[in-house]
Amino acid sequence: MWSKFGVKLASGWGAVVRQGSRLDLVHASTSAGRHPVVHAFDSFRIETDEADALSRLATARNLKRLRCVTLLEEGQYSLLQLEAPDVPAAERVDALRWRLKDSVDFPVADAALAVLDIPADGVRQPGVLAVAAGAAVVGERMALFGKAKLSLAAIDIPELAVRNVAALFEDENRGLAFVSLTDAGCLLVITFRGELVLSRRIDLTAAAVARADAERRQQLLERLGLELQRTLDNFDRQYGYVSVSRLLLASEHDAAGVVAALADSLYLPVQAMDLGTVLDCSAVPELQGAERQAQGLMAIGAALRT
Predict the structure, then answer these.
(1) Are 36 and 304 in contact (CB under 8 A)?
(2) Would 162 be classed as within a structural domain?
(3) Domain span including residue 127
(4) Around 144, how many Cα atoms within 13 Å sit in the side-chain half-sphere?
(5) Whether residues 122 and 194 fall in one domain
(6) 275 burial level (CB within 10 Å; 0-12, 13-18, 19+)
(7) 23 - beta bridge partners?
(8) Is the pTM of this model over 0.85?
(9) Which of 72, 94, 186, 200 has the fewest beta carbons under 10 Å from its own?
(10) For the chain, what is the domain count?
(11) Is residue 161 part of a domain?
(12) How many Å separate Cα 72 from the centre of its chain?
């Protein structure tokens, strides 16, 4: 599928995302008034190391024809909720940088820092989400792509990749809860008006659920339901102006079974994610399957940058 483009500079984004022992590659583009298009999607096992795999795929999959985006991994960055500083927009990053010095374990002076607005109700002091990563971590990712002679135009985080997908499913003026349950872990995000409002990681993997016997599986899913319900209750108290309409689930294993179990635990409607309802995936037939969609979720979301 990747050979179909690359004759000229391709539009959109090329996401290169490490997921454990594999690299996921996605090429996607967005345009106003139409569903975003997934042009290509593939996964490759890392045989020796990431640098070697990236160098080989750069040529084999025409990645040099794309603006590339990658994701930092859990533990390589900090995501914190803070009150918005009362300064001009151009000065927010510097104003927040020094607030973070006691909250992160890397020097803030030269750290990479981005600030995201949390949709406000117009009454309370608006909040922001600050994403910070150490200069050494960012420099390492840049060097990795530079060695492969790839154009690394952006470095993002998993929470925002999932937000990019979740935002496509939102009902107008309603919040959406979205759970990604993969072999790498479990991530809950809540979005509103296309923005990330809350994120939380839960200590569970899709593989653990899939390997468990019936009794243990029920226990794991009951615990997941309880953790989600507690988070949703806390969210409702903190963000009463955001009405969450439903919870969507993307799971690498038995999405239908997990949805059924969570539906018994939560007061919200629970549904399985179906990317075919919000994306044009016609060029990638394998994305018709729910499990493959969940496997590629991070890379797909990363490639949906606007």
Answers:
(1) yes
(2) no
(3) 78-133
(4) 22
(5) no
(6) buried
(7) 18, 44
(8) yes
(9) 94
(10) 3
(11) no
(12) 10
